[in-house]
Amino acid sequence: MRPRTIPGSSGHVRPLRLLGDPALTEPCQEVTVFDDELARLVEDMYATMYAAQGVGLAANQIGVPLRVFVYDCPDDEDHRHLGHLVNPRLVEADGPVIRGPEGCLSLPGLEAGTPRHDHAVVTGVTVTGAPVTVTGAGFFARCLQHECDHLDGGLYVDRLTGLRRRRALRAAAKAPWAGTAGAAGR
Ligand SMILES: [Zn+2]
Predict the structure, then answer these.
(1) Over 80: is that where the pLDDT of 186 sits?
(2) Vertex 64 angle, CA 4 and 148, to 5°
(3) What are 133-159's pLDDT values in tens digits?
(4) Residue range 62-116, pLDDT digits in tens
(5) Which of 19, 68, 94, 106 is the most exposed place for a label (fewest CB within 10 A)?
(6) Dihedral sign, CA of 109, 94, 128, 5?
């Protein structure tokens, strides 16, 4: 394969927005223009996700309020799922709800047991506007639900309750990056 076909290889790593940054809590807008700028955004998102060793990244995590996410994520059988979705819609989230470890590039170094459905289907389009349907199970289903939440202005900590939520927010407040949110990327 030619190097230029590797996602993100021509992209630029952009600064990540962290918990507390308003970009993460505003719902993103539908993409209406499918141009080079959108293609560059997706490339930059792959590059940023790989640089941060993440398995998924939503556009608002780099401060772009558009409904786009990228992923390179294993499922529970260690099959790799790689791709991007523009204007994704979570059309199915069902099966048993499983509480499993979940982290986020916007809360670096932290993880919490978060409940998610074991099966998810997301429809959307590619960067060129071609329709796609992505089906996930296990950890990949978790990833799809996590990224869709981002585009609606949600974070996994919003899915936590009680002691788990208090623990997660306390850990975030004590994290080395706490208080830097909002300054990132400027
Ligand atoms: Zn995230």
Answers:
(1) no
(2) 90
(3) 999 999 999 999 999 999 999 999 999
(4) 999 999 999 999 999 999 999 999 999 999 999 999 999 999 999 999 999 999 9
(5) 94
(6) positive
Measured at the alpha carbon of residue 43, what is the angle toward residues 6 and 66, in degrees to the nearest 5? Answer: 145
Residues with catalytic roles: 147
Q: Give 105's strand partners.
A: none
The reported pTM is: 0.94
The domain 3-174 belongs to what CATH superfamily?
A: Peptide deformylase (3.90.45.10)
- Is 81 marked as binding a ligand? no
Q: Taking 70 as the threshold, does the pLDDT of residue 181 lie above it?
A: no
Task: For residue 94, list its beta bridge partners.
Answer: 119
Q: How far is the CA of 128 from the centre of ligand 1 (A)?
A: 24
Compute the distance between CA of residue 134 and CA of residue 12 in angstroms, rounded to an integer. 26
Q: Give the distance (Å) from ligand 1 centre to CA of residue 80.
A: 18
Distance (Å, rounded) from C-alpha 11 to C-alpha 40? 7
Residue 91 C-alpha to ligand 1 middle, in angstroms?
20
The answer to whether the annotation marks 28 as part of a ligand binding site is no
Distance CA 9, CA 6 (A): 6
Consult the annotation and say whether 146 binds a ligand.
yes
Ion ligand 1 contact residues with beta carbon within 5 A: 104
